[in-house]
## 1
Amino acid sequence: VMKPERLTNVLLVDDDAVDVMNLQRAFSRNNIKNPLFVVSNGQEALDLLRSADFPKSRVVILLDINLPRMNGLEFLRLLRADEALCSTMVVVLTTSNDERDRVAAYKLNVAGFLLKPETSANFVELAATMNKYWSLLEMP
Amino acid sequence: MQALAEPPTGSSGRHASKGGTRTSTTGYGIGPAWPLVLAAIAVVALGTSSYHYVGRSNDIVEERLNSGATLLHLERLLLTLQAAVAGQRGYVITGRPAYLAPYADAGKRLTGELIALEGLVAGQPEQMASLRALRPDLEAVLADLSRTIELRRQGQEDEARALVTSDHGHYQMARINEEVARMRVRASSRRDADRVRHLASVRTSFVLVVGGSAVLFLLTAYATMSTARELRARGRAERAAQHRGERYRSLVDASSQVVWTADRTGQMTGDHTAWSALTGQSSREAEGHGWLNAVHAEERSATRAAWLQSMETGVAFSWEHRVRRQDGLLRTFSVRVVPVFDDKAAIREWVGVHTDITERKRAEERLRFLAEVSTLLAAPPELPSALSKVAALSVPTFADASTIDLCEPSANPKRVAQTRHNSDGGAAADPSPGGAESEALVEVCRTGNGRLLEIESASGPSGAAFVRSLMLVPWQVRGQVAGVLTWTCEESRRRFSQDDLAFGREVAARMGAAIDRMRLLAETEEARRLLDAIFEAAPIGLALFDADLRLSRINAALVAVTGQTTSSAAGQPAATLFEGTLPALEGLLTETLRAHRAIEREVRGTIDENGDERVWLIRCAPVAGGVIALFIDISGRKRVEAEREGLVRALARSNEDLNQFAYVASHDLKAPLRGITHLSEWLEEDLGDAIPEPAREKLALLRGRARRLEGLIDGILDYSRAGRARAAASKVDVRALLRDVVDLLGGPAAASVVIAAVPFPALLTDRAALQQVFMNLISNAIKHGSDAATGQLQVEVSATPSDDQSIWTFTVADNGPGIAPDYHERIWGIFQTLQSRDKIEGAGIGLSIVKKIVEAQGGQVWIESVPGQGARFSFTWLVREIPRRDTPWPEVAWKEPLL
């Protein structure tokens, strides 16, 4: 017996329109009802997270590393330093396979480090898996 | 001349024994006399008392015998009477005359007994009275008997019997018996009393005799002991006297003195056996001044002159000269001749004594010689000339010839000095050493042991057979046999003894020590000069400070730097000298002195003449009596070091930038590409069947180009990483590695990859790098050979070691189409492909990565190929990676044999 689907608020921080579109297409392909918020850099993400009308529970941030103005790692550092936001779940979704980025991200307590799939089909599959996983998660 | 070889030993002996007698007189005077007198008295007393007691005892014994005899005679008297009575009865009864025999004698016997008894009891009135009483009874009995017998004989038998049985006879017999019993009792009691008296007398005698004997024994023992003691004392005294005599004789023998006499004019006269025994001259030969012929020729005339002068002046003559002994040996004698005067104070004769002082002279000569040798070698002239002088010095005192040879480690000894003494005074060239001598010389050089040698020679210089006596003694310098001193005697007929050898060793030891010292001095001087030269010529600053840290010396280099003059700086304390310019120096010097070890430190200072600040490496080391300080200007080195560090940092930064660039470039380039790919896919998806077929093909081409560009970007990234990131070396079994590679590649069925059946090594290297090289080469061969017209593609990997097995050459050969020589260089370039990319999808990066990796490992890579005959790609690889300085060599040191 499946539990009734719990919705998760997804905040995508990515400046690449194709990748944003990729995720949106993957969500719709998988019929995922999760609200999807999109910002293009770290600063915008912080601003949004701190705004009053942004949901305070069941939030997952999908974070790219290479971003204009404030990159992913800088954003992570500020997030972890923020009393109210420090427990937010963050999954890195990036094209960077750099070891240093990986280590730095995990040091800042990310819940996962995923490489952007090369093809759309794989992107769809990834979105489905993530969604499935999130629905099972108990969050702060 | 009267020769008295024997000194007056006798008189000396008498003296000695006289002394002995004197001591013994005191012993005899009192000691043994009084016990003897006492003994004599004791003997007399004992004799007298013994005589007295024995006499008394004899009387007693006699009286006892008397009593015994009385008893005996009484018995016999009774028996005789009873026998007569019994016989008479027998006759009366039987009538046989035989019974009358006892009766016949009875009268006579009884009379005899009575007479005897009278003699015995004379002086005893009771017994005399008894005897007198007996007599009538006896006569009465006899008369009765006679009467009875007469009757019987006449045949009147009955009357006779009647008489016999009558009481008359019985009564008489009873009286006799009574009287005899009384006498018996008296005699017995008398005998018992005598016995008691006798015993007492004997006891007294015994006590006397035993006591006297004891006294006598004690006295005798005492006298005997005294005598024995006296005898021992006398023996000792006599032995002491004898020893004194013997000692004196030995002394005279040892001093070998010859005493002789000459007349008033100095002529040796008379018999002189001792002189003859010494020299072998006959009395006639020695007469007059003939004895001078025994004196050594060189000293003869001088002796004669001095002797004659003494005769003239009448002064005692004292001289020393050598005398040839009977055995031919020259001995040195001292001569002393003194005049003997007569009553009128005129010289009557001369008494001379020759004393052999050879040993003393020799000892003196030896001492002098040793001293001279030491003196000669103490002043350092040239060594050969010093050695020549030593050789000359020993002739003729110690030897007829003297040579000195220096030992050579691998050659024959080299003769450097020789001196020979000739009787004619000239020095002659020494003949080269003969066989035995030469051999001995080599042996002594080798063993370092001195030795004596005697060589019998058929003919000497004088034409007669002689013995050459040689003594070879080596000297050592620093534990090495350096040379040999050889002394030879032939003319003088001397033979070297063990004593001489010991002396020779002493001489050699002194020579060795002196030469050693000489060399040491020379070397020290040489070393000092060398040090001076180094000190002055050294391109670094040198300063010597004494224990009080005052400058004692400064070298030219430091003078040049500081501008100090040697004269102005010398003697000044380090603290003052370098106060403002190098304040750290004093502390360094003090620390060096205290720690007593070298200390090195880099300090900044302005000791430079111009006052420039420079970095000085100061090294201080303790030396005898102070500290030496080395000043090295390392400012230049410091600057270079700083520059190098800056360069290294810049390079690292540049590399980092490059890394960053490649990474960012690839990332930023790849992102739009992926966008293109995705967008074209979405176009197809979204439009679906609305896209015409030619447009769909173009979309596919678009994606293909995007993929190819992505491949190129990945290639750039791979290439830039290749050979840069080196993993730690690990042990790699190359055959196993190849199996993995083949499995990984899989490859089309048409191609088969064979690992040749040759030994493959195990290497200590970066596994990933080697794997990449093999992977790229094999996949390259498969990729380019798979479309070969030859059909089955075969790829073979083989390996060959270099001669010393330090480098291996690996070859990947295929039977594919091959590559024309024109392209053999170009294929290694990046993005170089020989086939159209549309035909074979390849980035053209594989071989360039191979080249980069192999060369980064210090190897080479090359190709051999003829078109149509396949290609052979080869590369070399080191067995063990050259360790980098900063990483320690792994523990797995290369020990296993190669596979």
Note: The mean pLDDT of chain B is 80.
## 2
Amino acid sequence: MTDLNKIDDLVHGALEDFHETPSKQVIAGIHDQMKGTNRWLRFSAFVSSVRFIIPVSVIAVLTASYFLFMNNGTEMSADQIAFNNQNSHSIVMPADNEKKEESINNIQHTINNIQQPTNNIQQPTNNIQHSTAKDKKIINYMQEDGVGEHSTENTQQPINNIQHSTNNIQHSTAKDKEIINNMQEDGVGEYSTGNTQQPINKNQQPDKTTPDSINSNSNTELNIETIYVYDTIQVIDTMIIYDTISIKSTEENTSILNDKEYYNNSFFSIEPFGSFGKINNKNTASADILTMMDTSYSGASYLNAGFNVNYHMKNWMIQSGLSYMKFTEKFHYTESILQVDTTVSTEVIPGGFYSYDSTLLGIDLNLIDFDLDLIDFDLDSTWVDSILYVDTINHVYDTINQVYDSVYNYQLDSVYNPTDSTVTTVTYDSTKTHNIYDLLNKYTYLELPVIIGYEFGNKRLRANVKGGFIAGIFLNAKGKGIQLTDEGLLRDLSQLPFMKVNLYGYFSGGVSYKLKDNLYLWGDAYIRPQLNSVYKKDYLLSQKRRLYGLKLGLRFVL
Amino acid sequence: MNSEEKLIRDCKKGKSAAQDLVYRKYAGKMLGVCMRYTGNKQEAEDVLQDAFIKVFTKIRSFNTNEKGSFAGWIHRIMVTTALNYIRDNKKHNYHSDIDEVEPENYEGYDQHDDAESSIDSKKVMEIIQELPTGYKTVFNLYVFEKYTHQEIADELGISVNTSKSQLSKARTMIKKKINEYKNATIISKAI
């Protein structure tokens, strides 16, 4: 058994930490197969992120509030209808001529009853402001058709009340006009309710001042009382006009009225508070560069200020303007130090034997002119990009000088001899393999948005959703960036190939709140994914910014 | 948050750079695991690729607090994927007649045990890879994954006795091959 355990232990010990380098096809295959999955993972991560949930929640709450607000208005109007109809049902027409006087008294009572709901009309309609000629047509029509003239003295008061009410109506819609037309074509009675729905022949209408002309034999509802009721019905019809106005009405109609007010204007918006938010960078480059970028990024922010002009067409609007955009990036960048104790110059004679006494971390062949086959170096050393770490070259032998001893012919410590043989002294610390920079990079752009939006809401508070594009024209960049052709060395940003125009998509949801007649406070929550790279295609790094944040401003009526 | 947690979080977000780093960190060792279960490096790389795709696809289900180390989680995926690969390719035969199960017999081996400890790990890997699939599967699960015979039987759908038999035969064969290798080395040096 011990022997068996020995076998197990032997194999386990030999293979427990066994490493084997996979071929490049494996990672390439993984990349190929993960493309779609990564897209889905990124989408899922975005959907479940705060920067998605918050704006969507805000929009959802605003939308829900809006519809809730609208529904409450309709319910209130429906109550009013029920109340009014109930009153019109209370009209009871006695047919007996002997009870004429009593009937008239009843009618008087009925009309008095009608006055009550009619008076009720006044309150909501008083809320409606700005009358138009269309509304006046309603009254004119009533006068032309003799609605008011056929009324008894007792009915004058409610009619006057209605006139007063309708005179207060300002701004009607096509729907109101349709109602009037329908009344003209189909007869007013059809818009009445309950007892008043029977068509009435206008010829049967009595002289308002001669109650004796009333057909006293009539047992139908078309007697004098009916006529009086008819007049009263006109009042009720008018109430239904009120209903129609108010239903669609108390809220929506107000909205319509405000739309006219609102959308007859263009607006000038400024962003005195700027827009602010965070930046996510989507970078694509080699894994080494991405690692360097991801770990070196400590924060990015931006400030955007400018003005916009909105042109409204009904609920739709077009927005454009001009703004100044400044991105700021904090960079903790780790730059590998080219460490050379001993200069490796072109004086090294090809064909000789040389040995290195240090760990060879990397060799830039451009810096060392020698025959690799003849040089003894440590193949097992870890290879690190851009670091040439050579302590000493021991010139053992060369075919020309026939040197066999160990004289250090090229020992020039702390001197860096680059490709062009220009000798450059670098600050050298044998314990330091990297330079760490704290950089603050700044990029400025002039931005031109072209955005369309849809607005809805009431007079004071309005919500909107917007979408469009923003073109950012590159102005300048200050700071340091990675010059990838030099294996990660830092260069001035002005040397990097920036795109002249950055193109962004733009999606937002927001609200505007009326402060004064011509002044609105507004705020938008938005996301701006960049569509093209910050850099030109020939640059190894592709960087796309994704901005999200809040925007606040003031909007003036032009 | 340490660097590995950040790496895992970025992998969960589908960042290919983070996936690259995870791959670079674990691929070498995990290829060794896969090679133990397969016949050659190419098959092992196929398993490795499938397993890493599973790692990156299922990484959202990985919870640092609940499931232990990330490396252990990746290791389990490698083993599971390797077993699935073996099943799918039907290159093995776990099942042997219980009657054929031989008692463990350690006789007949020569006495070069003292030299076994110095054997190269690559040679050991070769020897493991040359084992019949059933042998090396049971051997790997028992020796490296610390499975019991009952767990191996459940995992592979074989009987406990078959598992014991396969393990015994695997040990026998390994021992034999190691000794052959050592003998050849001694002869070579003598020459």
Note: Chain B touches chain A through 50 residues (CB under 8 Å).
